[in-house]
Design brief:
globular, Rossmann fold, seven-stranded parallel β-sheet, alpha/beta, about 325 residues, 2 domains
């Protein structure tokens, strides 16, 4: 039986939009009625893949300023007012649309679904165990609230074979797949929204004769799907989980170079496991050494299927 499914992603950073695309494609392929909302810079990717988005208030959690005072000012003057506006908009939209199910990584949408008593599934790629106190406790609380008032957490993961606790189902990584033909090259740099030193890494690699592409650079054309780009590279350098997913589903060795504490949590979990085709670098020099090794000799290649099918199985 076909359902009306509302897919809503968090508007801050492009990764949230990126992982919604394979879910949306799989949902539509099964004949469900899909409605989407999200926003942010990532909306370009969603729309390039043929999906219409409902527009709501957008905001960035982290300001350009790295100071604590800058964060406080940004939160009070920008984030909170826009978050409240977005909550009101989401609530009204869900009440009008009356979806059978909500699938989201937007905590505001999650609360709206709780209040409206709509069946709701949370998209996730972090677990409390990835963090130290106090974030581990906060994430545990977030999980408890989700499973108390919602239906299920679907955890997209590089280790989908591991057992999940009650109320949680695992899927493989979610990637933006496509059929574009791309000429082979050496290294793809994917700095995401917060990666640093990637321009320096590119310059040094190119000075050594390597052919390098960098997502978001002046000479980069925005792509509707990323796996054709990752497949054509000898290796990738990534920060965020969505970029890692595009790399491993593309079968390309991924050098994870974390910057945010959330990315550090993923990196630590990778280091704790013996994952084929994925490694972690903590400094620019380590990144350069690993990338040169992959191009000059060889690196293990990951073998992952896109987790979209498993994900939608979990919400049907």
């Amino acid at each position: 039986m076909a359902d009306k499914i509302a897919l809503v992603y968090w508007p801050d950073t492009t990764g949230h939009a990126a992982r919604s695309i394979p879910i949306a494609k799989e949902v539509e392929s099964r004949g469900h009625d899909l409605i989407m909302a999200g926003g942010g810079f990532g909306s370009r990717f969603v729309e390039m893949n043929g999906f219409e988005l409902q527009g709501f208030a957008e905001f960035e959690m982290l300001p350009d300023s790295k100071s604590k005072l800058g964060l406080i000012k940004h939160t009070l003057a920008d984030t909170l007012p826009k978050a409240l506006k977005r909550f009101r908009q989401l609530f009204g939209w869900l009440r009008r649309e009356k979806p059978d199910k909500v699938v989201t990584d937007d905590m505001l949408c999650l609360i709206c679904a709780f209040v409206l008593r709509i069946e709701v599934y949370r998209i996730e790629n972090w677990t409390p165990q990835m963090f130290s106190f106090p974030f581990s406790s906060l994430y545990s609380l977030y999980d408890r609230l989700t499973l108390t008032f919602g239906d299920k957490i679907v955890l997209t993961s590089l280790w989908p074979w591991e057992e999940a606790r009650e109320g949680v189902e695992r899927s493989g990584p979610l990637a933006q797949e496509g059929s574009e033909q791309v000429d082979q090259y050496d290294v793809l740099l994917m700095p995401g929204s917060f990666g640093e030193e990637f321009g320096e890494i590119r310059s040094e690699l190119e000075e050594n004769g390597y052919k390098v592409k960098m997502v978001g650079a002046d000479d980069w054309d925005t792509k509707a799907s990323m796996t054709p780009q990752t497949k054509a590279a000898e290796c990738t350098v990534c920060c965020g989980f969505s970029s890692i997913a595009d790399s491993v589903v593309g079968g390309t060795h991924c050098i994870v170079y974390p910057h945010l504490f959330l990315q550090q949590g993923i990196a630590r979990s990778i280091e704790e496991r013996d994952l084929n085709g994925v490694e972690v670098a903590h400094t620019k020099d380590q990144v350069l050494k690993a990338a040169k090794r992959c191009v000059e000799s060889s690196c293990a290649q990951p073998e992952y299927e896109n987790g979209a099918e498993e994900f939608v199985n979990a919400i049907e």
